[in-house]
Design a protein that fits this description.
Blueprint: H1 2-16, H2 23-51, H3 58-93, H4 97-127, H5 131-143, H6 157-162, H7 168-176, E1 181-184, E2 187-190, H8 202-206, H9 214-218
Antiparallel strand pairs: 1-2
Length: about 230
């Protein structure tokens, strides 16, 4: 919303000062108009997150994908239009556009590299961090004839040892008092903080509170001792 307000305000000011005679001008006006279509798709997606049981099927999923693809297309179009705007600007003031174009392409490259690095770092931090420690932990579990869990790949073994154990009766009692708990792969998970931003929608999770969602999460049968 802040992005639409900012781009909408500055875009309106820019459009008011240009003469519609160049490709840059026409493309800018088109991007400006389509921005509000993207905003509408985003509002529909936000509404679907809360009001619809699952936004991963049918029209809600189509709207989500359109919002994502349409937004990516607008971003690329905007970058291309800025490149075209360099020619317009330099032609108006008599500057050589080569330096500005090179600087702009370098900036685009830096943005892309920062994005790729951020994606890699985020994924590595979430999974790879525990792999070495976990291998020893898994060998210890095998000696004790205990079953392994996929979720252990994301948990520090030292923290795992401190987790309290719960029975189904204790889980059900907490759910009846208003807790948003589910059981997945032997772990009790509290969904209260992120249920409203779940990519598949809040309603679909509200229906499984107090149940074992292992089969839905992993896609196969598993039985675990319940721990939190």
């Amino acid at each position: 919303m802040l992005g639409v307000i900012g781009v909408g305000s500055f875009g309106a000011a820019a459009i008011a000062t240009i003469s519609v005679k160049t490709v840059h001008s026409w493309l800018g006006i088109t991007i400006y108009a389509l921005l509000f279509v993207e905003f509408a798709l985003g509002l529909v997606s936000i509404w679907g997150q809360v009001a619809i049981v699952s936004v991963n099927h049918g029209y809600p999923r189509l709207v989500k994908r359109l919002h994502k693809i349409f937004g990516f297309a607008l971003l690329l179009s905007s970058w291309a239009n800025i490149y075209l705007g360099i020619d317009t600007y330099c032609l108006s003031y008599g500057y050589d556009p080569l330096f500005y174009k090179i600087a702009y392409l370098v900036w685009i490259g830096m943005v892309a590299l920062m994005f790729l690095f951020g994606e890699y770092w985020w994924n590595w931090r979430g999974t790879s961090k525990w792999k070495f420690t976990l291998s020893n932990f898994e060998r210890e579990n095998e000696k004790q004839n205990t079953k392994k869990s996929r979720l252990l790949l994301h948990i520090d073994p030292e923290d795992y040892k401190k987790f309290p154990e719960f029975t189904w009766e204790e889980v059900n009692e907490r759910v009846q008092r208003g807790a948003y708990l589910v059981v997945c792969d032997g772990f009790v998970v509290n969904m209260r903080k992120w249920i409203k931003v779940h990519p598949g929608g809040a309603k679909i999770l509200e229906r499984v509170i107090g149940t074992d969602i292992t089969n839905d999460f992993f896609g196969y049968e598993k039985v675990r001792t319940i721990i939190e």
